[in-house]
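Subject: sequence -> structure tokens, single chain

Hey, anyone have a minute? Need the predicted structure for the following. Not urgent.
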Amino acid sequence: MLKCPVCKEENNCAVAKKEEPTSCWCMKVTIPKELLEKASIKDHCICEKCVEDYRLTLEKMN
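Reply:
Had a minute. Here:
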């Protein structure tokens, strides 16, 4: 399994699991730009938990 470029945990990316890429959860949501900047072209998905944690942090700041 490939790792999330943010938390380094398994990211459960559909591509990494050799599934149809469009079935991956990340194809159905908008990933915040700040998180995308942490990923390189060789990385697969940023995990769903990192995206949720980031959004919750932003909500708490507002």
